[in-house]
Amino acid sequence: MELVEGSDKAQAVVRVVTIQIEDGIKNATTGQDVEIRQLASVSAPLAEGEEVLWFLPRDSTLGLAQPLGVYSGDFRIEGEGASRVVNNLRGNAGLWDGSLWAGDGFDRSRVLDTAAKTMSLPPARVSTIDRAATLGPDNRDIPLDLLLAATKSRVQR
Amino acid sequence: MSRQFAIISVIACVITQAAITAGGPTQVERGTALLWNNDHPIAYKIDKGPLGKIDEAKARTFVEEAMNTWAQVTTTRLQLTPSQLGEDIKTATRYLTVAGDASVGSIVVLDNVGDIIKGLYGEGQEVNILGFASPRLSGAHVTRFVALMNGFVSDDHAMVRSTMVHEFGHALGLDHTQINSGLAKNGDPSDDEFIPTMFPTSGDDDSTLMNLNPDDVAWISKLYPNDQFSKAYGTIRGKLIRKDKTPVLGANVVAIALLKGREDSMMRFSCVSDYLMTSDGAFEIVVTPGSYKLFAEPILHGFAGGSSVGPYAASLREASFKNRIKLTRFPSSISVKAGEVTDVGTLIAQ
What we know:
Helix content of chain A: 10-25%
Largest sheet of chain A: 4 strands, antiparallel
Number of helices of chain A: 3
Strand content of chain B: 25-35%
Shape of chain B: globular
Number of strands of chain B: 18
Distance between the termini of chain B: 31 Å
Radius of gyration of chain B: 20 Å
Low-confidence stretches of chain B: 1-21
Mean pLDDT of chain A: 87
Low-confidence stretches of chain A: none
Distance between the termini of chain A: 31 Å
Structural class of chain A: alpha+beta
Order of helices and strands of chain B: EEEEEEEHEHEHEEHHHEEHEEEEE
Number of strands of chain A: 7
Structural class of chain B: alpha/beta
Helix content of chain B: 10-25%
Mean pLDDT of chain B: 88
Oligomer: heterodimer
Number of helices of chain B: 7
């Protein structure tokens, strides 16, 4: 990821973030680099090389985009390999109530099936997802695998 | 560095998140809070046009009432002078031009149907963001602010008015506080009256945020005191450090009045350790006279970015979220008199 500061057409300072896509879920191609232009004054600090999982809207007519909800859709990734976890800039507060499986949005079998088949995760990591989904997410890191599997299960519908 | 605050409503993403989206000053530099020079009235202009389903006259009334909520605090000296901007700002491009033009002065932009939000943040974001405010600095003072209210989410008038009071608190230089965070989303709207206006996110009943709580009143008074301030408030001063004697940067220190019943939850005042970025863990809590106990707690993970509490929480990599302290209660009772400073010395956090 590369950060460049410049000016947009309206002379407002913009931040250009270049992201190398490691895993594109929807409307993003794995392996490509994309440039995202953001108003610097409404952007949370970001370090070069930092790993993120961003849920982005379509660019505005000015070519600007922030993660959805600005902070809610801005997940920062920590850790390495299979133990990578995510926390958004809202501390994952309110992502789900109690258990992800108890809400009306995610089907447990579909999410776990996505993890096992689409993402080719070994059974131990699928079990980790299942356990993590039954714990409240507030102020707690959640496995990257879980967020990816849940998202991909929805996108595949 | 200028900080901007946004209230976020709902993330319309793969996962539904229920959130909208004062303990201290918003901007500090080298041990000094950067504030308005209140020797002069703070003039601000209100954008023309309606705010969604709220007509122009009512929207203007809401703005002025929200601003006056702060100016009418009896222990503060703030003069506010509203006027009308000569145009209705309708596009993000025009917003950027006006917001970037210091000669325009302070403005409250009424984004009628969320088109400006959409242009600034991306398509569809108008459902996510209620509004934002950004104080702008020149030298050692705040000299103007830019605030925007999103009319796309204007059905709930109480929410709109609460958002305005909160955002204008930022415009006047106030930071967030996390007092009574456990009550914000506990499913019980009846206890949300104990949540300060400058709490970063939504609770179960956000209409209560339009009424200032003791912590809000104390801090606006501390930042802009009038001659009644010293008769009404005292100060608890100290430093928060770790066992290894290093200062705690960016933890929350709370003073709870030794009262019973409702007042036990209401009379809470806070300050983030090292709030003036002096690198010594110093805090100052402005309180009404009485007896208090203190506790220190980490800043909640959710209060980063635009929901940040204190100067060390802009991202999860900053000091508030690294090597976090544990909840530490300090048993000694502290007596505070009006106009006096009670120095509690150095407190050791766990």
